[in-house]
Design goal:
It contains seven helices and no strands. The protein is mainly alpha-helical. May be involved in cell proliferation and cell motility.
């Protein structure tokens, strides 16, 4: 049992170190994937579209760096900026969304990349605290399992 807990502890420790070391690569990959999702955003419902819409509605943002990122997409040429960028769904017409100057007043102007990364970084202290607490319990479990094993081994030799 102690060996199993030690193995799990080491796996979690390695994952945390790798995540910390490669955090910049993770951000770069996220940004490129978000750009790709905007490029592939289409009229039919798919996972990329749902993910982009959810991020934009939840964080009140639009595009990767800002709302003008949509101007380089095929979707913009057909329908304009997506409705998930609108500040108010009632006051957002398709004509407004096709004109970048009018859209600037009706959509969120901040980009999603900065908001997502800043939200993740602000929550990292909570995640780190919970992980540290779990690691402490695992270490206590490892120590107690070793003590129990030693106790059982010592008692077997005394009985013979």
């Amino acid at each position: 049992y102690a060996m199993l807990l030690s193995l799990i502890f080491l796996i979690v420790l390695v994952a945390a170190v790798v995540g910390f070391v490669f955090r910049h690569e993770i951000k770069t990959n996220f940004e490129s994937n978000l750009n790709l999702a905007l490029k592939d955003y289409n009229v039919t419902a798919d996972r990329h579209r749902e993910a982009v819409d959810t991020i934009q509605r939840t964080l009140h943002c639009c595009g990767v760096q800002n709302y003008s990122d949509w101007e380089r997409t095929e979707y913009f040429r057909q329908k304009g900026i997506p409705r998930s960028c609108c500040k108010s769904q009632d006051d957002c017409s398709e004509q407004d969304l096709k004109d970048p100057n009018k859209a600037k007043l009706k959509v969120f102007v901040d980009g999603c990349f900065f908001l997502v990364t800043s939200t993740m970084e602000s929550k990292m202290s909570v995640v780190a605290g919970i992980s540290f607490g779990i690691a402490c319990f695992q270490l206590i479990g490892i120590i107690l399992a070793c003590c129990l094993s030693r106790y059982i081994t010592n008692n077997q030799y005394e009985m013979v």
